[in-house]
């Protein structure tokens, strides 16, 4: 039985990947600053991704390390992100494990890259994008075996730092309106986290035969006109007339003068004004068809877990499953 260490197992990507790896027969060791009371089938260890000794200790005798931890929002990225990835690289080198990183579209400039392949030039023009590109470059330079799996904006049953649960709807409340960051007629890539996690599991099952430094793209769900996700929220809520409001980008820029998180959020507008799709040809060649949950099922599961659906709606979906 192989073992994976997951940094960020209490988050969206980390939590879903932990569940997927268990399904694939892996032993899962999860490190967190606060260990949940309900440990389940995970082997929890207490530690901080910023403490190198803690990461090294947790990574002893593991076969893979998933680096799925980020500072909340955009605060302190300059100071925290690179030290954390450096600790994971050091642990991967010491244990001989393969390092896996969930990547993003922010490495690219959507104004010049409408379709991104894993080897497309990275010329990020946002603060977060430059840091994400620097993380990947550092992994490449380190010489450790690695997998980078880039995907669009996340959504899924676990709340986290994503547009759907932090902007479009309000967790814990029925959906009364939808705040849509998309531009009408402009496509956008989304990634349902359970499908992304299953993809990580299939790649890691084959990690021994993958390239030393492997990069793939997860195509996910393509919202061709900027309304597909909003309409899916309407459908899951059984409220086809739910009002859809536009994101107040100008207000975000104004408030961003005094708030770092909102300032960086406002800079992400270009990814909603210009389409950027991810080419998954090399991923399909490696694992076969990309895991894909039908959008209506994915959105219903997401909103039910976020506490945004009436109990009757959630129960009907459970009975149908």
Automatic annotation (TrEMBL):
<feature type="domain" description="NAD(P)-binding">
    <location>
        <begin position="8"/>
        <end position="154"/>
    </location>
</feature>
<dbReference type="InterPro" id="IPR051783">
    <property type="entry name" value="NAD(P)-dependent_oxidoreduct"/>
</dbReference>
<dbReference type="InterPro" id="IPR016040">
    <property type="entry name" value="NAD(P)-bd_dom"/>
</dbReference>
<dbReference type="InterPro" id="IPR036291">
    <property type="entry name" value="NAD(P)-bd_dom_sf"/>
</dbReference>
<protein>
    <submittedName>
        <fullName>NAD(P)H-binding protein</fullName>
    </submittedName>
</protein>
<dbReference type="Pfam" id="PF13460">
    <property type="entry name" value="NAD_binding_10"/>
</dbReference>
